[in-house]
Design a protein that fits this description.
The complex is a heterodimer of chains A (660) and B (581). By secondary structure, chain A is an alpha/beta fold. Chain A is built from 25 helices and 15 strands. In chain A, 38% of the residues are buried. The N terminus of chain A is likely disordered. Chain B is α/β, with parallel strands linked by helices and 581 residues long. Helices cover 65% and strands 9% of the residues of chain B. Chain B is built from 21 helices and ten strands. A six-stranded mixed β-sheet of chain B has the order 6-7-8-3-9-10, sandwiched between helices. A four-stranded antiparallel β-sheet of chain B has the order 2-1-4-5, with helices on one face. Classes of the chains: A alpha/beta (660), B alpha/beta (581).
Chain lengths: 660, 581
């Protein structure tokens, strides 16, 4: 079931969402626009530097290694069939003239210059070449120095750019995470009932993390790869536009293949993710239920189930290999085809002297650079799809219209003011969590200050729901709840809750110190005041036993203290609020009698002089109440003191008898 | 067993495929080196102007031809080598899963579920990477590296030596950086785990947060931990962000050397222009193997470390195992006897149970009560050998249970643990397990006995309702009753119930207790309960305290003793009793 949900969630995403999502995300970058702009500027700079690297090689060849001069244009047919490339030297320099004089048979004189075919250069002494080409050698050193400067600058800019981008991306995600968390915790309790905690946690942790990847990969992709591809195209076009267009003939094929592949790779990637999730679930389920599996000797059946699941994962993995094994080599093949075209067509241009040799070499290098980003497109597409899916899930939560209900009417001053709770009235309240499944039907009751009201009744009769309505975790579908005669919906939720303390069945404590658990959210407390609370809640002796006392860290699951002791701390927490109204959802599970007595005593202290509403699972608790309301099948069927109800010999009486 | 032995069988099984794959990869590598050669010929010919269109088309066709061969061979090696790694992954995971199922309960008390999960996913993935991409990268690095160096040396040895100067820096740098990265990555992971826990805890306790207006605190806490996470990430990025640019710098350094020295040598005509260009191409080819070298070393290191961890788990022998001549038993029809049983979880710790002597006749019911932590659950778990006793004997039909085949012993017992564990399947699967076709009447009866029928009928799909992970859609009481139905369905001679009515209301509880009373007589029942009403009809009731039997007898006898049992009974009687004012 869970895996279906994952799959469904991923399937929801259509391409039309992509643009919408990007539009929605864009405002998040607002505080960091300057940094972003800086990062993009650096990307452009880096791209230019990347592009400059082959260009420097081109200059080295064309200007210094095989200089192209006017004389090349004037090459003439020396041997009869072949054209010959000549080196031109200036013979006004006496050293050069001396060398030319020594190899007269190799040089052709043309005014103040002498020409020598490149093929004849090896026949010269090395020292002579050094003299002849002094300027070229110096030029090479110069070019190498420039190159060195370029690559060092490239390294530096790259590093700075990555740091800026990462910082920006992380901070945007941090902001989003905090906002999302804050938004989620303001959603109504109904939202939490419908959505498993695990899923919500994933939204705040993994999904925001994925968005960070979206951000960095978009900057890296759009601004780096796209710039690079565009830049290379421009450079290629300026070197020779005809050659560029011809070698780009393979591009439409590359494009179509990339899109096709991206879709296929994405599909199989999703299947693999689902399979791994299922394998993990199976593993954790097996570990969690190992005793049951062993006691009921289900090892073989369970193994078989796992094996077939694992094999599905293997099959999906093989499909992925197949897809990559086809795509990657084909892209390489197409890049080789483009190279072949460059060699063939460009080579002829070189022969026809419409392109220099250096240009051709540079062209080859650029063509190779051109295909690199294309090969990674699929991978980046996956990341983007994945991230956009996360973005959409987060977007959906932000657009959940289920915030905690705030006052619908009443002036501001009225809202922010609530006197001590004097009386509570429920008037003909009906409620259902899900449509058609009524939980409370026409419930009416009145509680006056100082009273203790107990709700009793079988499981599922709606006792806990009454608590959920009083704390405004839920809103009734019909009827009203009045506090001091005011409709509960006109009172600010925060204010309302600050007047009451909820003690739940499961004493939920947070990891942190005992002190934090008790006082956090309730303002400052002096040690003296805290001590009084600890004593009244029967926590004192237990906490004194702990080495760090009230500053003891409660670890995950709080192994160091028992569940009864946790219950005591939760009572202390209620004390710290000094509430007018205690709402107690009594624990169902049995705790040892000694701790139980302590808890009862602490609860007694807590309820003293306060109004209390108790959901009683044990009739013994109910008996001490000033009034008992018996819920059965979503209605209040009996009401009165213990004595009155016993005399009636009704439902309550029968419940009592059952336990005998 | 050596860790390597774990993956050896897969290599042997696929040895031809692997060898063939490596062969293809090697050929691809060589072909890859030929292309710069072709470019060199073309450039040389163009420099010397000794080609025409016909020669050029030959060169172009060479390139395309080579590329087609490469594409085909690339497909083959990817399938062969990476495919094998998937096979290793599948096999290892199966082995691990199968093994984990055989381990004893004591192992799972020590091991964290999260760690085991990490082995099942991360470690196995590391091994897959090491055996797949690891082999590929290693072959690539060796073949391409030596060949590229060879070709360069063939062109000019001195220049080659100069060019290779930055290379050790690349190999060394990659290793240092990846190691550092790994370390920082773990810090990031740890911070992420903290973040997850903070969020999880706050969402799980959302009612308390809301009821106590603690939203501000919660957001502050998240903000702090999220900032820590951002900080850890930036720390990691400092390394990763400088790594690739630095590798590029090193490899470009070689290029600078080629430009300077190679350019001069071309001018001196020591090498041709074509050589110069080819040299640059080879250099491009060399960068990847050099980086791969560093990468592959880390990949393999991580893979071996993972393999060691997996091997450690696989070497763990189940503590509870069949002895060599274990007796096969068919049906238990006599007494269960505890003889001076002493038990402690760890050898040197104080015993949880001491001096337990018990005789439970066939068809009798033993009730067990006692304060929390007195050893009740432990005592029950000794019977199906979830744990083995430290001293003394447990005999069933006069046979020491340690001499029996475990699966035979367990087939005689139906056990309902204290914490009901439900699997993600349907209600039917959870009750009947492998007995998928379990007679519906039997299933209905078990459900009825466990007071489940109404609950099940309230679901649209009844028995076929999928309960979700750990039975998430059910209430505690419903889960408990499903676990009870599971135990009741199997008509075994021994029935063990650990606190079967702790999470159900009084009404349901009484009805379940009636069911249990009904089966007593035909089956030997061990029942632990906090509610006296669940045990008071037992033939014998024992009270445990600090691992010892402190009271023993029938309900009436124990009431007369007026100790823990009687006190608890009266306390509950007052609580539960009516008119007790």
């Amino acid at each position: 079931m869970a895996t279906n949900a994952i799959y469904f969630e991923e399937e929801q995403l259509g391409n039309s969402y992509d643009v919408k999502m990007l539009k929605w995300l864009y405002p998040l970058t607002k505080p960091y626009r300057a940094l972003l702009a800086g990062s993009i500027f650096l990307v452009v700079l880096i791209t230019l530097l990347d592009l400059a690297v082959p260009y420097v090689t081109k200059i080295a060849i064309d200007r210094y290694i095989v200089p192209q001069s006017e004389s090349v244009e004037k090459t003439y047919n020396a041997v009869g069939k072949h054209k010959i490339r000549y080196l031109t030297v200036n013979i006004t320099d006496p050293h050069i003239r001396a060398i030319v004089g020594r190899y007269q048979h190799l040089f052709t004189l043309e005014g103040k210059t002498a020409l020598i075919p490149y093929t004849d250069l090896p026949k010269l002494e090395r020292n002579d070449i050094v003299v002849l080409r002094r300027a070229d050698i110096a030029g090479i050193a110069f070019i190498a120095a420039i190159f060195l400067a370029l690559i060092v600058a490239n390294f530096f800019f790259n590093f700075v750019q990555v740091m800026i981008m990462e910082y920006t991306g992380q901070m945007i995600m941090h902001d989003l995470r905090v906002r999302l968390f804050d938004h989620i915790q303001k959603l109504s309790v109904a939202f939490f009932t419908r959505n498993p905690v695990g899923r919500l946690v994933t939204r705040v942790t993994n999904d925001t993390q994925n968005m960070h990847e979206l951000f960095t990969s978009i900057v890296a992709f759009v601004f780096k790869d796209v710039f690079l591809v565009i830049g290379i195209t421009i450079v290629l076009l300026t070197i020779n536009w005809k050659l560029t267009l011809i070698s780009f003939m393979v591009l439409p094929v590359v494009l179509v293949l990339s899109i096709h592949f991206s879709v296929k790779a994405r599909d199989v990637y999703r299947i693999l993710r689902v399979k791994i999730a299922e394998i993990n679930t199976r593993f954790s389920e097996t570990i969690g239920g190992i005793k049951v599996i062993q006691l009921f000797r289900q090892e073989q059946a369970n193994y078989n189930g796992f094996e077939s699941l694992n094999h599905e994962n293997y099959t999906a993995g093989m499909i992925q290999i197949h897809i990559y094994a086809i795509f990657m080599p084909i892209i390489e093949l197409l890049s080789a085809v483009a190279l072949a075209v460059v060699i063939f067509y460009g080579g002829r241009r070189v022969l026809a002297d419409s392109i220099s040799l250096g240009a051709l070499v540079a062209f080859i290098s650029y063509m190779r650079m051109f295909f690199r980003p294309l090969r990674d497109i699929a991978e980046k597409y996956n990341i983007m799809q994945n991230a956009l899916a996360s973005a959409e899930r987060i977007y959906l939560i932000f657009n959940t219209e289920e915030a905690d209900q705030e006052p619908v009417d009443g002036s501001k001053s009225e809202r922010s003011d609530l006197q001590r709770i004097q009386d509570i009235v429920m008037e003909d309240v009906s409620f259902s969590y899900v449509e058609d499944e009524i939980v409370l039907k026409h419930i009416s009751f009145h509680v006056k200050a100082g009273e203790t009201i107990a709700f009793v009744g079988p499981t599922g009769s709606g006792k806990t729901t009454v608590v959920n309505l009083l704390t405004r975790f839920y809103e009734p579908q019909s009827g009203r709840i009045l506090i001091n005669g005011r409709d509960i919906t006109t009172i600010e939720t925060r204010l309302l809750r600050s007047r009451m303390a909820l003690v739940t069945q499961d004493p939920f404590l947070f990891s942190g110190t005992i002190r934090e658990n008790i006082i956090s959210g309730n303002g400052d407390f002096s040690d003296e005041a805290l001590n009084r609370i600890l004593e009244a809640s029967n926590c004192k002796s237990m906490i004194d036993r702990l080495p760090n006392g009230v500053d003891t860290e409660l670890s995950e699951g709080g192994a160091s203290i028992s569940s009864g002791e946790r219950q005591l701390i939760s009572i202390a927490r209620a004390f710290a609020r000094d509430p007018d109204l205690i709402i107690l959802d009594e624990a169902t599970s049995y705790i040892d009698s000694e701790t139980e007595l302590k808890i009862q005593e602490a609860l007694g202290n807590l309820m003293k002089d306060r109004t209390s509403i108790i959901v009683a699972h044990r009739l013994s608790t109910a008996r001490t109440a000033s009034r008992i309301l018996v819920l059965h099948r979503h209605r209040i069927i009996e009401e009165g003191t213990h004595g009155e109800l016993m005399e009636r010999k009704g439902f309550y009486f029968k419940l009592q008898q059952l336990q005998n | 067993m050596k860790s390597v032995d774990l993956i050896k069988p897969y290599f042997i099984e696929n040895r031809f495929i692997i060898v063939f794959g490596i062969l293809c990869l090697t050929v691809v590598d060589f072909l890859q080196l030929v292309i710069p050669r072709v470019i060199k010929w073309a450039v040389d010919d163009l420099t010397a102007l000794r080609v025409d269109g016909r020669n050029l088309i030959v060169y172009a066709l060479y390139i395309v031809g080579i590329a087609i061969m490469m594409a085909l061979l690339r497909y083959v090696w990817r399938r062969c080598l990476i495919g094998t790694s998937r096979r290793v992954e599948e096999g290892l995971r199966n082995t691990l899963f199968g093994h984990i199922q055989t381990l004893s309960a004591s192992y799972f008390q020590k091991a964290k579920t999260g760690d085991l999960m990490a082995h099942a996913t991360n470690d196995i993935q590391h091994i897959r990477m090491a055996t797949g991409m690891g082999i590929v990268a290693l072959t690539d690095a060796v073949v391409l590296g030596t060949a590229a160096i060879g070709f360069m040396a063939y062109i000019n040895i001195t220049l080659t030596l100069y060019v290779l100067i930055p290379m050790p820096l690349i190999v060394f740098g990659t290793r240092v950086f990846t190691r550092k990265m790994h370390c920082l990555y773990q810090q990031v992971q740890a911070s992420f785990a903290d973040l997850t826990e903070v969020v999880r805890e706050r969402f799980a306790g959302i009612r308390i947060i809301k009821a106590y207006n603690r939203e501000r605190d919660a957001t502050d806490r998240l903000e702090t931990i999220s900032r820590d996470y951002v900080g850890k990430n930036l720390g990691l990025v400092k390394i990763t962000g400088s790594f690739f640019p630095m590798m590029m710098l090193f490899s470009n350094l070689s290029l600078a050397i080629v430009l300077f020295l190679g350019g001069r040598q071309t001018i001196y005509t020591t090498i041709t222009t074509g050589d110069f260009v080819a040299f640059i191409s080879y250099l491009g080819l060399l960068t990847w193997p050099m980086m791969a070298m560093g990468w592959v070393v880390n990949l393999i290191q991580r893979g071996t470390a993972s393999l060691d961890r997996i091997n450690k788990i696989l070497e763990t022998r189940p503590e509870i195992n069949d002895i060599p001549d274990a007796v096969s038993i068919k049906a238990v029809r006599d007494t269960v006897v505890f003889e001076n049983v002493i038990f402690s979880y760890e050898p040197d710790t104080s015993p949880v149970l001491t001096g337990i002597n018990l005789t439970v006749k066939h068809g009798h019911t033993l009730g067990i009560v006692g304060p929390p932590g007195s050893g009740k659950t432990t005592l029950l778990s000794l019977i199906p050998r979830i744990f083995d006793i430290s001293q003394g004997r447990i005999l069933i039909d006069n046979i020491d249970i340690r001499d029996m085949q475990i699966s035979d012993l367990r087939s005689q017992i139906s056990f309902m643990p204290q914490e009901p564990f439900l699997f993600a399947g349907t209600i039917r699967e959870n009750i009947a397990f492998e007995n998928r076709q379990a007679d519906t009447t039997i299933l209905m009866k078990a459900a009825d006995d466990a007071n489940l029928t109404t609950t099940i009928q309230s679901f649209p799909n009844e028995f076929e309702t999928v309960v979700g992970e750990k039975g998430v859609i059910l209430s505690g009481g419903q889960k408990q009753r499903i676990a009870l139905a599971r135990a009741l369905l199997r008509e075994t001679p021994i029935l063990i119930l650990d606190d079967p009515v702790s999470q159900v209301d009084m009404e349901t509880g009484s009805s379940i207790i009636n069911t249990i009373r009904a089966v007593a007589g035909q089956r030997t029942v061990f029942i632990v309960s906090h509610r006296i009403s669940a045990v008071q009809h037992a033939d014998t009731i024992i009270v445990l305290n600090n691992g010892r039997i402190v009271e023993s007898g029938t309900h009436e006898e124990l009431l007369e003793q007026n100790r823990y049992y009687a006190q608890t009974f009266h306390l509950q009687e007052i609580e539960e009793g009516y008119n007790g004012n």
